[in-house]
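for the record, two folds in this file. i put them one after another cuz i was lazy. first one right below, seq on top, structure tokens after. the second one comes after a little note so u can tell where it starts
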Amino acid sequence: MIRKLIILCAALSALSAHAMKINAAGASFPYAIYSKWFSEYSKQNPDVQFNYQPIGSGGGIRQLIKETVDFGASDAPMKEKDKKKAKWPVLHVPMVLGAVAIAYNHPEVKDQLKLDGPTLADIYLGKITKWNAPQIQKLNPEMKLPESDILVVRRADGSGTTKNFADYLVDVSSEWKQRVGTGKSLRWPTGIGAKGNDGVTSMVENTTGTITYMDLAHARKNNIKTVALKNKAGVYINPTVEAVSASAKGFTPKGKELTGSLINSADKDAYPISALTYILLPMVEKDQKRVEIYKFVEWAITKGQNYAKELFYAPLPEELSKKVVKKVKSL
């Protein structure tokens, strides 16, 4: 028996040593489902192993441009200036949909606090500094809110989650649009920074009075309270998989690209800060590693979508999924 185990371990070790290793880096927003996909795919294809570093969308784009990874990942499409820096054309492949949840920690503030866009913008502009500010109390007349400070937490690294959050604030606040704008990195008027979704999650979990934005998976897995956010139709919507899917009704990709925005959808059931997340494929000369990467991507956008809901992501809309599959099959 022992001899058989030794032989089995040796065989597995040899297999691992000869497995193709694919390196990737980027967004932390989809890390939960990417980890699941990499694990499940490697179980079915033990000759392919993945090393993914969730260093943020900005970091993933930088590593892609430096050619230190086989593919990048980002929650925001690359800017034209970044595309020009890349040695090769880069294909954006939408992988899944998610919510940027507004999460907070205050024992005296009940779950599903209601906020609207202008009020959230004023908190991040540093104009609203107390939990019982009149603007927040007006939206939550049934709650007795505490007279304590709000501690704003935001990302310190280049982040696609930040880009999607800022896109929303630009859409709902002219002052935010003029003073701050949007991007993966911002000149924040207030708050303290933390790296990655893991970093902001840890800071909010351990600090009373904090508010931040993070992917829904981090909020739910860590039992952090989230805001019901008023959407364009005037309905307060909790961040859920169903509300994210509603934001993608009628979604059409931009031009020939497979990219586009789900921010502040007009659908009455839509969560207003919903987003696509992308794998960034450099269109390098096709070799065996490229073939394996394309096989994985096709698996992830078909069979892999079945893992989305249990991890608090929404599968790609059917029409978009057809276009993405067709594109990947053509590579």
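(here's the note) second protein begins now
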Amino acid sequence: MQITVKLFATFRVGRFKIEQRSYPAQSTARAVLEDVGVTEEELGILMVNGRHGNLDQPLCEGDTVSLFPLVGGG
């Protein structure tokens, strides 16, 4: 199935901004995270189709997964 993956902020460094990727049917958001080389510890926000998601959320054909890193500051 085709999933659109969007990376934000530092996740784009050495990767991409937006890309269509292929995953096996019944893949989860965790599979996308592993595929792009982002660890759970680095992940700040995960969105699926513009809504907050979780790593074990099953994906469907045409879904969009957006990954945001943790952000620090004061």
